[in-house]
Amino acid sequence: MSDFRAMFVGFPDFNVSENFFPNINLQDKLNWAEEFIQNVLIPRLPEAVAAHFPEELGTVLVMFACAGIFVGVVPLLPLVLVLAERKVAARFQNRTGPMRVGPWGTLQTLADGVKLIFKEDFIPPQGDKFLFLLAPYIIFACSFAVFAAIPFGQNILVSDFNIGIFYIMAISSVIVMGVIMAGWSSNSKWSLLGSLRSAAQIVSYEIPLGLSILTIVMLVESLSMHEIVASQSNGIFSWLIFRTPFTFIAFFIFFISSIAEVNRTPFDLPEAESEIVAGFHTEYSGMRFALFFIAEYANMFAVSAIAVTLFLGGWEGVLPGYDILGGFPGFVIKTLALVFLMMWLRWTLPRLRVDQLMNLCWKYFIPIAFFNILGTGIWGLIFPEDTLISTSISCAIIYIGLIGAYKIAGRSLGQRPAPQPS
Amino acid sequence: MEFTLKTFIFYGFAFLTIASALVVVTVRNIVHAAFSLMVTLFGVAGLYVFLQADFLAATQVIVYVGGILVLILFGVMMTSGRLEMRIHIERGQLLLGGLVAVALLMLLLTVIANTPAWKNLTDDGTKLPPTTERIGELILNGPFLLPFEVVSVLLLVALIGAAMISRKEIRD
Protein backbone atom coordinates (compact mmCIF):
# COMPACT_ATOMS: atom_id res chain seq x y z
CA MET A 1 0.00 0.00 0.00
CA SER A 2 2.98 2.27 0.12
CA ASP A 3 2.50 2.63 -3.65
CA PHE A 4 -0.72 4.40 -2.89
CA ARG A 5 1.24 6.89 -0.90
CA ALA A 6 3.63 7.41 -3.81
CA MET A 7 0.80 8.88 -5.84
CA PHE A 8 0.76 11.86 -3.56
CA VAL A 9 4.47 12.43 -3.29
CA GLY A 10 4.03 15.63 -5.19
CA PHE A 11 1.79 17.01 -2.49
CA PRO A 12 3.69 17.98 0.62
CA ASP A 13 0.40 19.34 1.88
CA PHE A 14 -1.48 16.06 1.58
CA ASN A 15 -1.22 15.18 5.23
CA VAL A 16 -3.31 15.22 8.31
CA SER A 17 -2.28 16.58 11.63
CA GLU A 18 -0.43 14.04 13.78
CA ASN A 19 -3.00 14.67 16.45
CA PHE A 20 -5.55 12.71 14.49
CA PHE A 21 -3.51 9.85 13.05
CA PRO A 22 -0.25 9.20 14.89
CA ASN A 23 2.21 7.01 13.04
CA ILE A 24 1.50 3.68 14.74
CA ASN A 25 0.00 0.39 13.65
CA LEU A 26 -3.65 -0.54 13.69
CA GLN A 27 -3.73 -2.14 17.14
CA ASP A 28 -2.11 0.91 18.65
CA LYS A 29 -4.57 3.03 16.77
CA LEU A 30 -7.51 1.19 18.33
CA ASN A 31 -5.88 1.51 21.75
CA TRP A 32 -5.36 5.13 21.01
CA ALA A 33 -9.02 5.56 20.18
CA GLU A 34 -10.03 3.85 23.40
CA GLU A 35 -7.61 5.90 25.41
CA PHE A 36 -8.78 8.98 23.67
CA ILE A 37 -12.38 8.39 24.63
CA GLN A 38 -11.66 7.33 28.21
CA ASN A 39 -8.90 9.69 29.17
CA VAL A 40 -9.49 12.68 27.01
CA LEU A 41 -13.02 13.00 25.80
CA ILE A 42 -14.95 12.21 28.97
CA PRO A 43 -13.00 13.91 31.78
CA ARG A 44 -11.19 16.58 29.82
CA LEU A 45 -13.74 17.94 27.45
CA PRO A 46 -15.17 20.67 29.72
CA GLU A 47 -11.67 21.41 30.98
CA ALA A 48 -10.41 21.63 27.40
CA VAL A 49 -13.13 24.04 26.45
CA ALA A 50 -12.14 26.25 29.35
CA ALA A 51 -8.39 25.89 28.97
CA HIS A 52 -7.93 26.10 25.24
CA PHE A 53 -10.44 28.57 24.01
CA PRO A 54 -9.00 31.77 25.51
CA GLU A 55 -5.78 31.34 23.51
CA GLU A 56 -7.69 31.35 20.26
CA LEU A 57 -10.48 33.55 21.44
CA GLY A 58 -8.83 36.40 19.58
CA THR A 59 -9.15 34.60 16.25
CA VAL A 60 -12.74 33.70 16.96
CA LEU A 61 -13.56 37.25 17.95
CA VAL A 62 -11.99 38.60 14.76
CA MET A 63 -14.00 36.09 12.71
CA PHE A 64 -17.20 37.09 14.42
CA ALA A 65 -16.38 40.78 14.08
CA CYS A 66 -15.80 40.43 10.32
CA ALA A 67 -18.99 38.45 9.89
CA GLY A 68 -20.81 40.99 12.04
CA ILE A 69 -19.63 43.87 9.89
CA PHE A 70 -20.98 42.23 6.75
CA VAL A 71 -24.23 41.04 8.27
CA GLY A 72 -24.66 44.52 9.72
CA VAL A 73 -23.60 46.64 6.76
CA VAL A 74 -24.55 44.64 3.68
CA PRO A 75 -28.33 44.66 4.42
CA LEU A 76 -28.07 48.44 4.32
CA LEU A 77 -27.09 48.14 0.65
CA PRO A 78 -30.52 46.91 -0.46
CA LEU A 79 -32.01 49.74 1.57
CA VAL A 80 -30.24 52.15 -0.76
CA LEU A 81 -30.33 50.05 -3.91
CA VAL A 82 -34.05 49.28 -3.78
CA LEU A 83 -34.82 52.97 -3.56
CA ALA A 84 -32.30 53.68 -6.33
CA GLU A 85 -33.90 51.00 -8.48
CA ARG A 86 -37.37 52.48 -7.98
CA LYS A 87 -36.14 55.99 -8.70
CA VAL A 88 -34.23 54.84 -11.80
CA ALA A 89 -37.27 52.89 -13.01
CA ALA A 90 -39.47 55.91 -12.40
CA ARG A 91 -37.17 58.21 -14.38
CA PHE A 92 -37.05 55.72 -17.26
CA GLN A 93 -40.84 55.72 -17.33
CA ASN A 94 -41.17 59.47 -16.89
CA ARG A 95 -42.53 59.22 -13.36
CA THR A 96 -41.23 60.54 -10.05
CA GLY A 97 -41.16 57.30 -8.06
CA PRO A 98 -41.81 57.18 -4.31
CA MET A 99 -42.15 60.76 -2.98
CA ARG A 100 -44.26 60.54 0.18
CA VAL A 101 -42.11 58.97 2.91
CA GLY A 102 -39.31 61.30 3.96
CA PRO A 103 -37.74 63.95 1.74
CA TRP A 104 -38.08 62.84 -1.94
CA GLY A 105 -39.28 59.48 -0.69
CA THR A 106 -35.87 58.52 0.67
CA LEU A 107 -37.31 56.65 3.66
CA GLN A 108 -39.66 54.54 1.53
CA THR A 109 -37.53 51.36 1.78
CA LEU A 110 -37.31 51.71 5.54
CA ALA A 111 -41.10 51.88 5.72
CA ASP A 112 -41.35 48.84 3.42
CA GLY A 113 -38.89 46.97 5.62
CA VAL A 114 -40.93 47.67 8.74
CA LYS A 115 -44.04 46.55 6.88
CA LEU A 116 -42.37 43.28 5.86
CA ILE A 117 -41.33 42.58 9.46
CA PHE A 118 -44.93 42.92 10.68
CA LYS A 119 -46.46 40.85 7.90
CA GLU A 120 -47.68 37.33 8.55
CA ASP A 121 -45.05 34.66 8.08
CA PHE A 122 -47.13 32.27 6.00
CA ILE A 123 -46.00 28.66 5.60
CA PRO A 124 -47.86 26.58 2.99
CA PRO A 125 -49.57 23.76 4.92
CA GLN A 126 -49.10 21.25 2.09
CA GLY A 127 -45.44 22.08 1.64
CA ASP A 128 -42.32 20.77 3.27
CA LYS A 129 -42.06 22.92 6.37
CA PHE A 130 -38.45 22.24 7.33
CA LEU A 131 -36.98 22.89 3.87
CA PHE A 132 -39.30 25.86 3.38
CA LEU A 133 -37.91 27.51 6.48
CA LEU A 134 -34.32 26.56 5.66
CA ALA A 135 -34.13 27.76 2.03
CA PRO A 136 -33.97 31.55 2.58
CA TYR A 137 -31.10 31.11 5.03
CA ILE A 138 -29.04 29.10 2.54
CA ILE A 139 -29.45 31.75 -0.15
CA PHE A 140 -28.80 34.54 2.33
CA ALA A 141 -25.70 32.88 3.82
CA CYS A 142 -24.18 32.09 0.42
CA SER A 143 -24.77 35.63 -0.85
CA PHE A 144 -23.00 36.98 2.20
CA ALA A 145 -20.13 34.48 2.20
CA VAL A 146 -19.12 35.87 -1.20
CA PHE A 147 -18.27 39.22 0.41
CA ALA A 148 -15.51 37.59 2.48
CA ALA A 149 -13.22 37.43 -0.56
CA ILE A 150 -13.93 40.79 -2.19
CA PRO A 151 -11.15 43.35 -1.68
CA PHE A 152 -12.86 46.70 -1.06
CA GLY A 153 -9.60 48.54 -0.59
CA GLN A 154 -5.91 47.92 -0.17
CA ASN A 155 -6.36 46.72 3.40
CA ILE A 156 -10.12 46.22 3.44
CA LEU A 157 -10.30 42.51 2.77
CA VAL A 158 -11.58 39.88 5.18
CA SER A 159 -9.42 37.04 3.92
CA ASP A 160 -6.96 36.92 1.05
CA PHE A 161 -7.60 33.32 -0.03
CA ASN A 162 -5.12 31.59 -2.30
CA ILE A 163 -8.11 30.56 -4.36
CA GLY A 164 -10.08 33.83 -3.96
CA ILE A 165 -12.06 34.00 -7.18
CA PHE A 166 -12.55 30.23 -7.30
CA TYR A 167 -13.96 30.33 -3.77
CA ILE A 168 -16.44 32.98 -4.88
CA MET A 169 -17.55 30.81 -7.80
CA ALA A 170 -17.92 27.78 -5.55
CA ILE A 171 -19.95 29.57 -2.89
CA SER A 172 -22.21 31.30 -5.38
CA SER A 173 -22.92 27.99 -7.12
CA VAL A 174 -24.53 26.78 -3.89
CA ILE A 175 -27.25 29.45 -4.21
CA VAL A 176 -28.89 27.16 -6.79
CA MET A 177 -29.50 24.60 -4.08
CA GLY A 178 -31.33 27.18 -1.98
CA VAL A 179 -33.44 28.19 -4.98
CA ILE A 180 -34.40 24.58 -5.75
CA MET A 181 -35.12 24.00 -2.06
CA ALA A 182 -37.40 27.03 -1.92
CA GLY A 183 -39.20 26.05 -5.11
CA TRP A 184 -39.75 22.44 -4.21
CA SER A 185 -40.75 22.91 -0.57
CA SER A 186 -43.42 25.49 -1.44
CA ASN A 187 -45.48 22.74 -3.09
CA SER A 188 -46.64 25.16 -5.76
CA LYS A 189 -46.25 24.64 -9.48
CA TRP A 190 -45.18 28.24 -10.03
CA SER A 191 -42.46 27.92 -7.43
CA LEU A 192 -41.21 24.61 -8.83
CA LEU A 193 -41.18 25.90 -12.41
CA GLY A 194 -39.39 29.04 -11.33
CA SER A 195 -36.76 27.15 -9.39
CA LEU A 196 -36.12 24.69 -12.23
CA ARG A 197 -35.76 27.56 -14.67
CA SER A 198 -33.43 29.31 -12.29
CA ALA A 199 -31.30 26.21 -11.78
CA ALA A 200 -31.00 25.57 -15.52
CA GLN A 201 -30.11 29.20 -16.12
CA ILE A 202 -27.52 29.49 -13.35
CA VAL A 203 -25.84 26.18 -14.17
CA SER A 204 -25.63 27.14 -17.87
CA TYR A 205 -24.33 30.67 -17.38
CA GLU A 206 -21.74 29.52 -14.86
CA ILE A 207 -19.74 28.11 -17.79
CA PRO A 208 -19.13 31.34 -19.78
CA LEU A 209 -18.69 33.12 -16.45
CA GLY A 210 -15.98 30.71 -15.35
CA LEU A 211 -14.30 30.74 -18.77
CA SER A 212 -14.09 34.53 -18.84
CA ILE A 213 -12.63 34.52 -15.33
CA LEU A 214 -10.08 32.03 -16.66
CA THR A 215 -8.74 34.58 -19.16
CA ILE A 216 -7.98 36.88 -16.22
CA VAL A 217 -6.39 34.10 -14.22
CA MET A 218 -4.21 33.22 -17.24
CA LEU A 219 -2.88 36.79 -17.41
CA VAL A 220 -2.39 37.32 -13.67
CA GLU A 221 -1.24 33.75 -12.94
CA SER A 222 -3.01 33.80 -9.60
CA LEU A 223 -6.48 33.13 -8.22
CA SER A 224 -6.02 35.50 -5.30
CA MET A 225 -8.23 38.58 -5.50
CA HIS A 226 -5.54 40.70 -3.91
CA GLU A 227 -2.97 39.78 -6.54
CA ILE A 228 -5.46 40.30 -9.35
CA VAL A 229 -5.97 43.88 -8.19
CA ALA A 230 -2.27 44.41 -7.51
CA SER A 231 -1.46 43.52 -11.14
CA GLN A 232 -3.60 46.45 -12.34
CA SER A 233 -1.74 49.18 -10.45
CA ASN A 234 -0.34 51.17 -13.42
CA GLY A 235 -3.30 53.32 -14.27
CA ILE A 236 -6.30 52.79 -16.47
CA PHE A 237 -4.48 51.07 -19.33
CA SER A 238 -3.12 48.41 -17.03
CA TRP A 239 -6.65 47.49 -15.99
CA LEU A 240 -7.24 43.97 -17.19
CA ILE A 241 -10.13 44.96 -19.44
CA PHE A 242 -7.69 46.91 -21.68
CA ARG A 243 -4.77 44.51 -21.28
CA THR A 244 -5.72 42.38 -24.28
CA PRO A 245 -8.58 42.59 -26.78
CA PHE A 246 -9.76 39.21 -25.49
CA THR A 247 -10.24 40.39 -21.93
CA PHE A 248 -12.28 43.26 -23.34
CA ILE A 249 -14.67 40.71 -24.86
CA ALA A 250 -14.46 38.61 -21.70
CA PHE A 251 -15.63 41.55 -19.60
CA PHE A 252 -18.89 41.78 -21.54
CA ILE A 253 -19.45 38.04 -21.41
CA PHE A 254 -18.73 38.11 -17.69
CA PHE A 255 -21.07 41.01 -17.05
CA ILE A 256 -23.98 39.65 -19.10
CA SER A 257 -23.57 36.19 -17.58
CA SER A 258 -23.52 37.81 -14.14
CA ILE A 259 -26.86 39.46 -14.86
CA ALA A 260 -28.18 36.02 -15.79
CA GLU A 261 -26.69 34.55 -12.61
CA VAL A 262 -28.50 37.01 -10.38
CA ASN A 263 -31.78 36.48 -12.29
CA ARG A 264 -32.35 40.04 -13.38
CA THR A 265 -34.14 41.29 -16.46
CA PRO A 266 -33.59 40.52 -19.34
CA PHE A 267 -32.78 37.14 -17.79
CA ASP A 268 -35.47 37.10 -15.10
CA LEU A 269 -37.32 34.03 -16.38
CA PRO A 270 -37.21 32.40 -12.92
CA GLU A 271 -39.30 35.29 -11.59
CA ALA A 272 -41.28 36.15 -14.71
CA GLU A 273 -44.39 37.68 -13.17
CA SER A 274 -46.50 37.41 -16.32
CA GLU A 275 -45.92 33.65 -16.56
CA ILE A 276 -45.22 32.12 -13.16
CA VAL A 277 -46.39 34.73 -10.61
CA ALA A 278 -43.09 35.35 -8.80
CA GLY A 279 -41.06 32.23 -9.45
CA PHE A 280 -39.39 30.34 -6.66
CA HIS A 281 -40.37 32.79 -3.92
CA THR A 282 -44.09 32.95 -4.76
CA GLU A 283 -45.16 31.42 -1.45
CA TYR A 284 -42.85 33.42 0.78
CA SER A 285 -44.04 36.39 2.77
CA GLY A 286 -42.90 38.73 5.51
CA MET A 287 -39.29 38.55 6.65
CA ARG A 288 -38.53 35.40 4.69
CA PHE A 289 -39.42 37.19 1.48
CA ALA A 290 -37.30 40.11 2.67
CA LEU A 291 -34.34 37.74 3.03
CA PHE A 292 -34.68 36.78 -0.66
CA PHE A 293 -34.94 40.43 -1.55
CA ILE A 294 -31.87 41.42 0.45
CA ALA A 295 -29.94 38.50 -1.01
CA GLU A 296 -30.90 39.55 -4.54
CA TYR A 297 -29.62 43.09 -4.11
CA ALA A 298 -26.55 41.93 -2.18
CA ASN A 299 -25.83 39.56 -5.08
CA MET A 300 -26.23 42.35 -7.55
CA PHE A 301 -23.70 44.44 -5.66
CA ALA A 302 -21.39 41.44 -5.24
CA VAL A 303 -21.22 40.53 -8.93
CA SER A 304 -20.60 44.17 -9.83
CA ALA A 305 -17.83 44.32 -7.23
CA ILE A 306 -16.30 41.14 -8.67
CA ALA A 307 -16.45 42.58 -12.20
CA VAL A 308 -14.73 45.74 -10.94
CA THR A 309 -12.06 43.71 -9.15
CA LEU A 310 -11.35 41.46 -12.11
CA PHE A 311 -11.58 43.89 -15.01
CA LEU A 312 -11.78 47.49 -13.85
CA GLY A 313 -8.81 47.79 -11.55
CA GLY A 314 -10.53 47.13 -8.22
CA TRP A 315 -9.32 49.76 -5.77
CA GLU A 316 -6.56 50.95 -8.12
CA GLY A 317 -7.05 54.40 -9.61
CA VAL A 318 -7.09 55.78 -13.14
CA LEU A 319 -3.62 57.34 -12.92
CA PRO A 320 -0.65 55.46 -11.43
CA GLY A 321 0.36 57.94 -8.72
CA TYR A 322 -2.99 59.54 -7.98
CA ASP A 323 -6.05 58.35 -6.17
CA ILE A 324 -8.61 59.27 -8.83
CA LEU A 325 -11.29 56.56 -8.85
CA GLY A 326 -9.04 54.61 -6.50
CA GLY A 327 -9.14 53.39 -2.94
CA PHE A 328 -12.34 52.43 -1.17
CA PRO A 329 -14.47 55.34 -2.53
CA GLY A 330 -13.29 54.67 -6.08
CA PHE A 331 -14.11 51.00 -5.74
CA VAL A 332 -17.62 51.77 -4.51
CA ILE A 333 -18.17 54.35 -7.28
CA LYS A 334 -17.11 51.89 -9.99
CA THR A 335 -19.27 49.16 -8.47
CA LEU A 336 -22.31 51.41 -8.21
CA ALA A 337 -21.78 52.45 -11.82
CA LEU A 338 -22.07 48.80 -12.87
CA VAL A 339 -25.11 48.38 -10.60
CA PHE A 340 -26.68 51.37 -12.35
CA LEU A 341 -25.90 49.73 -15.70
CA MET A 342 -27.78 46.64 -14.53
CA MET A 343 -30.79 48.73 -13.55
CA TRP A 344 -30.61 50.57 -16.86
CA LEU A 345 -30.68 47.24 -18.75
CA ARG A 346 -33.52 45.99 -16.58
CA TRP A 347 -35.80 48.89 -17.40
CA THR A 348 -34.80 49.03 -21.08
CA LEU A 349 -34.82 45.48 -22.39
CA PRO A 350 -37.72 43.03 -22.59
CA ARG A 351 -37.42 39.53 -21.16
CA LEU A 352 -35.84 36.77 -23.24
CA ARG A 353 -37.60 33.53 -24.10
CA VAL A 354 -36.20 30.29 -22.68
CA ASP A 355 -34.87 29.14 -26.06
CA GLN A 356 -33.23 32.51 -26.70
CA LEU A 357 -31.66 32.35 -23.27
CA MET A 358 -30.16 28.93 -23.87
CA ASN A 359 -29.10 29.78 -27.44
CA LEU A 360 -27.31 32.88 -26.24
CA CYS A 361 -25.41 30.93 -23.63
CA TRP A 362 -24.53 27.71 -25.44
CA LYS A 363 -24.25 28.87 -29.05
CA TYR A 364 -22.66 32.29 -28.61
CA PHE A 365 -21.13 32.90 -25.18
CA ILE A 366 -19.41 29.58 -24.65
CA PRO A 367 -17.70 29.42 -28.09
CA ILE A 368 -16.66 33.08 -27.78
CA ALA A 369 -15.33 32.41 -24.28
CA PHE A 370 -13.27 29.47 -25.57
CA PHE A 371 -11.97 31.66 -28.38
CA ASN A 372 -11.01 34.22 -25.73
CA ILE A 373 -9.00 31.66 -23.80
CA LEU A 374 -7.17 30.58 -26.94
CA GLY A 375 -6.53 34.22 -27.86
CA THR A 376 -5.31 35.12 -24.39
CA GLY A 377 -2.92 32.17 -24.47
CA ILE A 378 -1.48 33.28 -27.82
CA TRP A 379 -1.31 36.89 -26.62
CA GLY A 380 0.59 35.73 -23.54
CA LEU A 381 3.07 33.91 -25.78
CA ILE A 382 3.64 36.97 -27.99
CA PHE A 383 3.76 39.50 -25.14
CA PRO A 384 5.02 37.74 -22.01
CA GLU A 385 5.30 41.08 -20.20
CA ASP A 386 2.73 43.85 -20.06
CA THR A 387 4.57 46.63 -21.92
CA LEU A 388 3.63 49.92 -23.51
CA ILE A 389 3.69 48.28 -26.96
CA SER A 390 1.34 45.44 -26.01
CA THR A 391 -1.08 47.84 -24.33
CA SER A 392 -1.05 50.19 -27.33
CA ILE A 393 -1.68 47.32 -29.77
CA SER A 394 -4.45 46.02 -27.53
CA CYS A 395 -6.16 49.40 -27.24
CA ALA A 396 -5.85 49.95 -31.01
CA ILE A 397 -7.48 46.57 -31.72
CA ILE A 398 -10.25 47.30 -29.21
CA TYR A 399 -10.86 50.70 -30.84
CA ILE A 400 -11.01 49.28 -34.37
CA GLY A 401 -13.19 46.43 -33.16
CA LEU A 402 -15.64 48.82 -31.48
CA ILE A 403 -15.91 50.97 -34.61
CA GLY A 404 -16.45 47.87 -36.74
CA ALA A 405 -19.10 46.56 -34.34
CA TYR A 406 -20.84 49.93 -34.40
CA LYS A 407 -20.91 49.96 -38.22
CA ILE A 408 -22.19 46.38 -38.46
CA ALA A 409 -24.79 46.94 -35.76
CA GLY A 410 -25.88 50.18 -37.41
CA ARG A 411 -26.25 48.49 -40.81
CA SER A 412 -28.29 45.57 -39.43
CA LEU A 413 -30.49 47.97 -37.48
CA GLY A 414 -30.96 50.07 -40.61
CA GLN A 415 -32.31 47.07 -42.50
CA ARG A 416 -35.26 46.72 -40.17
CA PRO A 417 -38.58 48.07 -41.33
CA ALA A 418 -39.36 51.37 -39.70
CA PRO A 419 -42.07 51.11 -37.03
CA GLN A 420 -45.44 52.17 -38.43
CA PRO A 421 -47.21 54.89 -36.49
CA SER A 422 -50.52 53.54 -35.27
CA MET B 1 -3.74 14.91 22.35
CA GLU B 2 -4.11 18.63 22.43
CA PHE B 3 -7.42 20.32 22.14
CA THR B 4 -7.45 23.44 20.08
CA LEU B 5 -10.13 25.34 18.26
CA LYS B 6 -9.10 23.51 15.10
CA THR B 7 -9.72 20.17 16.74
CA PHE B 8 -13.25 21.16 17.57
CA ILE B 9 -13.91 22.46 14.09
CA PHE B 10 -12.43 19.27 12.61
CA TYR B 11 -14.70 17.07 14.70
CA GLY B 12 -17.58 19.37 13.85
CA PHE B 13 -17.02 18.77 10.14
CA ALA B 14 -16.47 15.04 10.68
CA PHE B 15 -19.71 14.77 12.65
CA LEU B 16 -21.58 16.82 10.04
CA THR B 17 -20.31 14.56 7.26
CA ILE B 18 -21.12 11.26 8.96
CA ALA B 19 -24.45 12.33 10.45
CA SER B 20 -25.78 13.72 7.19
CA ALA B 21 -24.48 10.69 5.29
CA LEU B 22 -26.50 8.51 7.68
CA VAL B 23 -29.55 10.65 6.98
CA VAL B 24 -28.99 10.20 3.22
CA VAL B 25 -29.21 6.41 3.47
CA THR B 26 -31.96 6.17 6.09
CA VAL B 27 -34.49 8.86 5.19
CA ARG B 28 -37.42 7.79 3.02
CA ASN B 29 -38.04 11.06 1.22
CA ILE B 30 -35.69 11.18 -1.79
CA VAL B 31 -35.54 14.97 -1.93
CA HIS B 32 -34.61 15.12 1.74
CA ALA B 33 -31.91 12.57 1.04
CA ALA B 34 -30.56 14.71 -1.82
CA PHE B 35 -30.47 17.86 0.32
CA SER B 36 -28.81 15.91 3.11
CA LEU B 37 -26.20 14.82 0.58
CA MET B 38 -25.45 18.50 0.12
CA VAL B 39 -24.44 18.72 3.79
CA THR B 40 -22.29 15.62 3.40
CA LEU B 41 -20.48 17.09 0.40
CA PHE B 42 -19.96 20.35 2.29
CA GLY B 43 -18.54 18.41 5.23
CA VAL B 44 -16.09 16.64 2.94
CA ALA B 45 -15.10 20.00 1.46
CA GLY B 46 -14.46 21.21 5.02
CA LEU B 47 -12.23 18.21 5.66
CA TYR B 48 -10.29 19.02 2.47
CA VAL B 49 -9.68 22.48 3.89
CA PHE B 50 -8.20 20.79 6.94
CA LEU B 51 -5.84 18.92 4.63
CA GLN B 52 -4.91 22.36 3.31
CA ALA B 53 -6.15 21.37 -0.11
CA ASP B 54 -8.11 24.57 -0.67
CA PHE B 55 -8.44 24.17 -4.43
CA LEU B 56 -9.78 20.66 -4.00
CA ALA B 57 -12.31 21.88 -1.44
CA ALA B 58 -13.65 24.58 -3.75
CA THR B 59 -13.73 22.11 -6.65
CA GLN B 60 -15.68 19.69 -4.48
CA VAL B 61 -18.33 22.33 -3.81
CA ILE B 62 -18.49 23.65 -7.38
CA VAL B 63 -18.64 20.23 -9.07
CA TYR B 64 -20.65 18.16 -6.62
CA VAL B 65 -22.97 20.68 -4.96
CA GLY B 66 -23.31 23.17 -7.81
CA GLY B 67 -23.35 20.60 -10.60
CA ILE B 68 -24.02 16.96 -9.89
CA LEU B 69 -26.41 17.43 -6.98
CA VAL B 70 -28.46 19.90 -9.01
CA LEU B 71 -28.68 17.30 -11.78
CA ILE B 72 -29.74 14.65 -9.26
CA LEU B 73 -32.48 16.97 -7.94
CA PHE B 74 -33.59 17.72 -11.49
CA GLY B 75 -33.87 14.01 -12.12
CA VAL B 76 -35.79 13.38 -8.90
CA MET B 77 -38.21 16.26 -9.38
CA MET B 78 -38.95 15.59 -13.03
CA THR B 79 -39.35 11.83 -12.92
CA SER B 80 -40.88 10.57 -9.70
CA GLY B 81 -44.46 11.23 -8.73
CA ARG B 82 -44.07 9.39 -5.46
CA LEU B 83 -41.46 10.82 -3.12
CA GLU B 84 -42.01 8.50 -0.19
CA MET B 85 -40.43 5.28 -1.36
CA ARG B 86 -40.39 1.97 0.43
CA ILE B 87 -37.58 0.20 -1.36
CA HIS B 88 -37.63 -3.56 -1.14
CA ILE B 89 -34.18 -4.93 -0.53
CA GLU B 90 -33.31 -8.49 -1.50
CA ARG B 91 -31.13 -10.56 0.79
CA GLY B 92 -28.54 -10.94 -1.98
CA GLN B 93 -28.29 -7.17 -2.39
CA LEU B 94 -27.82 -6.76 1.35
CA LEU B 95 -25.02 -9.33 1.32
CA LEU B 96 -23.31 -7.74 -1.66
CA GLY B 97 -23.60 -4.24 -0.22
CA GLY B 98 -22.26 -5.42 3.12
CA LEU B 99 -19.32 -7.12 1.41
CA VAL B 100 -18.44 -3.99 -0.54
CA ALA B 101 -18.69 -1.87 2.62
CA VAL B 102 -16.46 -4.24 4.60
CA ALA B 103 -13.94 -4.41 1.75
CA LEU B 104 -13.83 -0.62 1.53
CA LEU B 105 -13.38 -0.34 5.29
CA MET B 106 -10.53 -2.85 5.22
CA LEU B 107 -8.88 -1.02 2.34
CA LEU B 108 -9.07 2.32 4.14
CA LEU B 109 -7.80 0.89 7.42
CA THR B 110 -4.88 -0.79 5.62
CA VAL B 111 -3.99 2.46 3.94
CA ILE B 112 -4.17 4.36 7.23
CA ALA B 113 -2.11 1.75 9.09
CA ASN B 114 0.52 1.31 6.38
CA THR B 115 1.08 4.91 5.51
CA PRO B 116 4.59 5.84 6.56
CA ALA B 117 5.04 9.10 8.40
CA TRP B 118 1.92 11.19 8.60
CA LYS B 119 3.46 14.59 8.65
CA ASN B 120 2.20 17.21 11.03
CA LEU B 121 1.55 20.49 9.33
CA THR B 122 3.14 23.26 11.29
CA ASP B 123 0.88 26.21 11.64
CA ASP B 124 3.16 29.18 12.24
CA GLY B 125 0.73 31.71 10.87
CA THR B 126 2.41 32.07 7.49
CA LYS B 127 0.33 31.94 4.35
CA LEU B 128 0.54 28.61 2.62
CA PRO B 129 1.71 28.42 -0.99
CA PRO B 130 -1.11 27.89 -3.47
CA THR B 131 -1.74 24.27 -4.40
CA THR B 132 -3.03 25.15 -7.87
CA GLU B 133 0.44 25.49 -9.35
CA ARG B 134 1.50 22.03 -8.21
CA ILE B 135 -1.75 20.48 -9.39
CA GLY B 136 -1.34 22.13 -12.78
CA GLU B 137 2.26 20.92 -13.05
CA LEU B 138 1.25 17.37 -12.16
CA ILE B 139 -1.69 17.27 -14.55
CA LEU B 140 -0.32 19.07 -17.58
CA ASN B 141 3.43 18.57 -17.26
CA GLY B 142 3.84 15.54 -15.09
CA PRO B 143 2.87 11.93 -14.46
CA PHE B 144 -0.89 12.54 -14.75
CA LEU B 145 -0.87 13.98 -18.27
CA LEU B 146 -2.09 10.79 -19.94
CA PRO B 147 -4.91 10.04 -17.44
CA PHE B 148 -5.99 13.67 -17.66
CA GLU B 149 -6.15 13.58 -21.46
CA VAL B 150 -7.97 10.22 -21.43
CA VAL B 151 -10.55 11.63 -19.02
CA SER B 152 -10.94 14.69 -21.25
CA VAL B 153 -11.63 12.49 -24.28
CA LEU B 154 -14.09 10.44 -22.23
CA LEU B 155 -15.98 13.58 -21.19
CA LEU B 156 -16.00 14.81 -24.79
CA VAL B 157 -17.48 11.50 -25.91
CA ALA B 158 -20.13 11.77 -23.20
CA LEU B 159 -20.91 15.32 -24.32
CA ILE B 160 -21.31 14.30 -27.95
CA GLY B 161 -23.41 11.33 -26.87
CA ALA B 162 -25.72 13.58 -24.83
CA ALA B 163 -26.09 15.93 -27.80
CA MET B 164 -26.87 12.96 -30.07
CA ILE B 165 -29.57 11.64 -27.72
CA SER B 166 -31.25 14.98 -27.14
CA ARG B 167 -31.08 16.34 -30.70
CA LYS B 168 -34.21 16.95 -32.68
CA GLU B 169 -35.05 14.44 -35.37
CA ILE B 170 -35.44 16.18 -38.69
CA ARG B 171 -37.82 14.21 -40.91
CA ASP B 172 -38.46 15.12 -44.49
Task: Please describe what this structure looks like.
The complex is a heterodimer of chains A (422) and B (172). With 422 residues, chain A is mainly α. Chain A has two domains: 76-110, no CATH class; 124-401, no CATH class. Chain A has 16 helices and no strands. Chain A has helices at residues 2-6, 26-73, 76-92, 108-118, 129-145, 164-173, 175-185, 189-220, 225-230, 240-243, 245-261, 273-276, 286-311, 327-346, 354-382, 388-414. Chain B is mainly alpha-helical and 172 residues long. In chain B, α1 runs antiparallel to α2 (30-50), α2 (30-50) packs antiparallel against α3 (54-79) and α5 (132-141) packs across α6. Chain B is globular. Classes of the chains: A mainly alpha (422), B mainly alpha (172). At the A-B interface, α1, α2, α6, α7 and α8 of A face α1, α2, α3, α4 and α5 of B.
Protein traits:
heterodimer; A: mainly alpha; 16 helices; disordered N terminus; B: 172 residues; mainly alpha; Four Helix Bundle (Hemerythrin (Met), subunit A); 0% strand; globular
Summarize this structure briefly.
Chain A is mainly alpha-helical and 422 residues long.
Mean pLDDT of chain B: 81
CATH C-level class of the largest domain in chain B is Mainly Alpha
Uncertain spans of chain B: none
Reading the helices and strands of chain A in chain order gives HHHHHHHHHHHHHHHH
Largest interface: A-B, 59 and 54 residues
The level of helicity of chain A is: 55-70%
Q: How many β-strand runs of chain A?
A: 0
CATH architecture of the largest domain in chain B, by name, is Up-down Bundle
The fraction of residues in strands of chain A falls at under 5%
Question: What number of domains of chain A?
Answer: 2
Note poorly predicted spans of chain A. Answer: 1-24
Number of strands of chain B: 0
Q: Judging from the principal axes of the Cα atoms, what is the shape of chain A? A: globular
User: What's the CATH topology name of the largest domain in chain B?
Assistant: Four Helix Bundle (Hemerythrin (Met), subunit A)
Radius of gyration of chain B: 21 Å
